[in-house]
Each structure stands twice: as C-alpha cells, then as structure tokens.
C-alpha cells in the first residue's frame, strides 16, 4: 500500500524541525502536484508525497560534506518508519544524482526539476519590494534564469530536465508559479 499524504506529513514533522526546510518541502510538494496534474493525473497525491519527503534527511545527514548520503539517509528513515516503497525511494534519491540514482522516469525527472525550481522562484520573489510570489511574472523567471550569477546554487540543468517528461520548460514555470502562489501563506511568500 502506498504511503498517504497524512502519513508523509506526520513523518516529515517527526524528522524535520527547521521552518525553512518545512516551507521548502511544502513548496516542492505543491509543484509536484501541479506537474502530476498534467503528466500523471491519477497519481497527484503520490507525486505530492515525493515532493513532501524529498529532503526528509536534511537535518539528519552530513550532506554538505558527503552529498552522496542525501537521499539514501531519507530511505533509511522511511524504512525505519515501516515504509517499503522502492518507487518512492528511487524518486527521493534521484533528486540528488550524487546519491548514485540517476533520473529515468517522469516522476524522477519531475522531482529533480521541482526541487531547485522552488528555491529559484523564492529567490526571485525575495528581490521584489513586497517579497511575494504573486508579484513574480513568467518573463522575470526567464530573465533571471539566464543570469547565471542570480541564485547560482539553483541548478539550471536540473530545472530544464523537466523536458525529459515531455513538458516544456515554459509550461513548467507557469505550473510552478501557480502552485507556489496557491500556498503562498504557508511558505511565507
């Protein structure tokens, strides 16, 4: 049986305390749900769970010194919690290719792309006077995307990997913006 959103939420809050990390997890969940509505409408909930749990180990592994541990540590946490879902495990690991899992499925490419997109859109919102995601326009995202020094940590190759799902990058921007606007209060934007 697949993990439910309620179970995922409970596990997330058991292992993650940092508000910034939680907000990021909610943002990636929202983007993944938006992408799933287009690519896998029957799996919206599941794709959202992948987004919600993708950084579960953020506060439990030395990912800065050992990036290969980010993802596999989440898998170990989930196994300890009684979850046995290889599709979920591979998707979580695929969002960090240094874990040894390279994206191959639409779900895996979607999480690979959605993770940096959430942070990138937040960075753009932060430069607006009101610091609101509602102020961010599609053309601003494209302009900042071409400015490689802006939000340099947001991996543009990973964001563009959405195209391996069959979705074009422009559509992905619109879906991500709409998704984050839908939960703006919850993510402080």
UniProtKB/TrEMBL annotation:
Q: Note the Pfam families from the entry.
A: HD (PF01966)
Question: Which InterPro entries does the entry mention?
Answer: HD_domain, HDIG_dom
Which segments constitute the HD domain? 21-100
Q: NCBIfam families, from UniProt? A: HDIG
Record's protein name? HD domain-containing protein
